[in-house]
Amino acid sequence: SHSIPVIAYGPLSSYLEAQLQARFTVHQVPVDADPASLPEEVREARALIPFGAVGASAAIMDALPKLEIIGLFSVGYDKVDIEHARAKGIRVSNTPDVLTDDVADLAVGLLYATVRNIAANDRMVRSGAWARGERPQLSGSVTGRRIGILGLGRIGRAIARRLEPVAGEIAYHSRRAVMDAPYRYVPDAMTLARECDAVIVATSGGPEARGLVDAAMLDALGPQGVLVNISRGSVIDEDALVAALTERRIGGAGLDVFVNEPHVPEALFAMDHVVLQPHQGSATENTRKAMADLVLANLDAWVAGEPLVTPVI
Ligand code: 8YV
């Protein structure tokens, strides 16, 4: 397989990069490269390995006439034109399961950090304000809160399991009720927001989920309500979120994902009721290694002509 040309699309981890180099002829393509003007030898690539958030547009697929597989370094495939890949017979693999626990941990961490003002209080201590006599604002509690989970897939369920011992109630909304889930199913996102004190967004992204959390839903969550998002920025109407936070129509937000990463709406920087993270849900040593190994296992299966380990299509 050493002579098979593949594309590392965006900055991969050094481990994945080295492992790819041990197997393939690897071409580096920056994510902002114009697909139409790729060098001749790069156009020979038979596999594309995008760093999660980059995805794969119809244009990059069309620029690579020999492309057979897109091996995603992410569970999410919202930035991949799946219909285009399907139409062209290009296979797509992702990295489910291996990142579930770490992403769920971060969601719970963001809930605590937001409700208990952990980030703002850290800044208060560091600034010397505590030593000068300032005292922390009293916060809400996590224990006893009614938690709503939007999207009860693998990650949503892992979040629910972690919060079971402390939540007053756990409710969820998904496109369908999950038969074996011991949580209250709510038929729409609005009701979830109205009936819960905190909503954690754990749905997959993509066109169907775009703007699912809108201004009306934020108002239903209310001035004491907290929103956490570890899914995709696009699931929330970001302008409506900034407005709701500015006007204190919701209580706070813990956000790991944004519409235009790595750019975050600057209005959020000055807000102490917001906790901001640089899309780090899966960014632990264990999980990133496991994700890389799963990308490689899918590529090995493809080379061997075997079924993919974790196919999307
Ligand atoms: C990113 C993620 O892929 O798995 C996903 O869907 O969003 C993350 O794991 C990771 O940041 C690499 O891009």
Automatic annotation (TrEMBL):
SUPFAM superfamilies for the chain: Formate/glycerate dehydrogenase catalytic domain-like (SSF52283), NAD(P)-binding Rossmann-fold domains (SSF51735)
Domain D-isomer specific 2-hydroxyacid dehydrogenase catalytic: residue ranges: 9-312
UniProt keyword annotations, A-Z: NAD, Oxidoreductase
InterPro entries (UniProt xref): D-isomer_2-hydroxyacid_DH, D-isomer_2_OHA_DH_cat_dom, D-isomer_DH_NAD-bd, NAD(P)-bd_dom_sf
Residue span(s) of domain D-isomer specific 2-hydroxyacid dehydrogenase NAD-binding: 109-281
Family recorded in the similarity comment: Belongs to the D-isomer specific 2-hydroxyacid dehydrogenase family.
PANTHER family per UniProt: 2-HYDROXYACID DEHYDROGENASE YGL185C-RELATED (PTHR10996:SF178), 2-HYDROXYACID DEHYDROGENASE-RELATED (PTHR10996)
Entry protein name: 2-hydroxyacid dehydrogenase
Organism: Sphingobium tyrosinilyticum
